[in-house]
Design brief:
With about 350 residues, the protein is α/β, with parallel strands linked by helices. About 25% of the residues lie in helices and about 25% in strands. The strands form three sheets. A nine-stranded mixed beta sheet has the order 11-10-9-8-12-6-13-16-15, sandwiched between helices. Helix 10 links the parallel strand 10 and strand 11. Helix 3 runs parallel beside helix 4. The longest helix has 12 residues. The protein is globular and about 65 Å long. The two termini are about 25 Å apart.
């Protein structure tokens, strides 16, 4: 099962709207087939493993990180494929929360005489597919907030200079994080300041293109921005407030940008919870928010940040530098969003510290 979980992680960021699943087939003490969900969500992990095993699947045990599907989608049910292949035992880490499955896959396997065991490394499997689970049960993706700051929490000088606060090792790690997410989220201020392309630029990293999302209530994104200019080849979505005239949206749409209409928030900008719900409806399960300070504050204020990846450089900028998070604001200390540290490691001269919400 540990091997199956490792295979499943290969699919993170590549399989949406489907979960990232791993499967290992064992017969007479030997691994005879391995598979993981392929880019775009199909073929499924079980199908891949069975294809590699061939006739050796007869009488084997299947270790699967998520309950095999039992419904027809774009592919036949995986539980039927396991039954036809002669699998005698299926060990499942976690159930599938999708209402079309949710126990039905396990029931079908048992009805066919397959021995079914559940719960092995369940916590690890649930955490791995937390984005998929939240999309189908809560209607929103998991959100990672990425921050790259000085020790005193600054992201740029007073003049806006920010390249580069962290070193090359940290920047490579940030791109690796991008590769494990379905979508990148930035505010229009970041587009105006940095003109990012928001792609994963790790050598040899073949992946499903990230959906690049700009929260832009006032339509400030220039038509000359990289995100707009490359929209025909890479997914570019601009989320803006209701009320814009069709003529204002048309130039973006003609460039290939998909326009998303979202209600305004309580404060300035967009209703970020509504934006995340809109992304979930399009199949997005894992969002990485990379800036700027307004987006960070909005997500934190509304309790929408599930994890934080904080890249901190060993330098101090001072109070005139730009803060990583705009005012929330907080009337009481008890209202402060709190997180628990789950990992920390050096990256060249910098450090990456990862946090989870205390009340996920």
């Amino acid at each position: 099962m540990r091997a199956a979980l490792g295979l499943a992680r290969r699919g993170l960021g590549n399989t949406w709207p489907n979960p990232a699943v791993g499967c290992v087939l064992v017969n007479n003490g030997q691994v005879v087939g391995r598979g993981w969900t392929q880019p775009g969500g199909r073929p499924h992990a079980e199908t891949e493993a069975l294809a590699r095993a061939g006739a050796s699947a007869q009488g084997a045990t299947a270790y699967v990180t998520l309950e095999p599907c039992s419904h027809w989608g774009r592919t036949p049910p995986c539980c039927d494929a396991l039954i036809r292949a002669g699998i005698k035992r299926v060990v499942v880490a976690a159930g599938d929360p999708d209402s079309r499955v949710d126990g039905r896959g396990l029931a079908r396997l048992r009805e066919a005489g397959v021995v079914v065991e559940t719960g092995l490394f369940q916590a690890e499997a649930v955490a791995l597919n937390a984005g998929f689970s939240r999309r189908v049960t809560l209607g929103r993706p998991v959100v990672l907030l990425k921050l790259a700051t000085t020790l005193d929490g600054r992201i740029a000088t007073a003049r806006g200079e920010s390249k580069w606060i962290t070193g090359p090792e940290a920047r490579r790690a940030a791109h690796a994080l991008r590769a494990r997410h379905d979508a990148m989220l930035v505010g229009s201020g970041t587009v105006l300041a940095d003109d990012p392309d928001l792609t994963c630029r790790l050598p040899g990293m073949a992946r499903v293109p990230l959906a690049r999302v700009v929260a832009d209530a006032r339509l400030r994104t220039p038509l000359s921005a990289r995100l707009v200019q490359t929209a025909r080849s890479l997914p570019s979505w601009i989320a803006t407030a209701t009320g814009h005239k069709p003529a204002e949206l048309a130039p973006y749409q003609q460039a290939g940008v998909e326009m998303l209409t979202v209600p305004r928030g309580k404060l300035a900008g967009l209703d970020l919870a509504a934006l995340l719900a809109t992304l979930a409806q399009r199949g997005i399960t894992r969002v990485m928010a990379e800036g700027g300070a307004g987006i960070a504050a909005g997500l934190l204020r509304d309790g929408l940040v599930d994890r934080i990846a904080w890249f901190h450089a060993p330098g101090v900028m001072g109070g005139d530098g730009l803060a990583a998070v705009q005012p929330l604001p907080l009337a009481m200390l008890s209202a402060m969003p709190r997180f628990r540290r789950v990992a920390s490691r050096p990256l060249g001269v910098d450090w990456l510290t990862e946090f989870e919400r205390e009340d996920p």
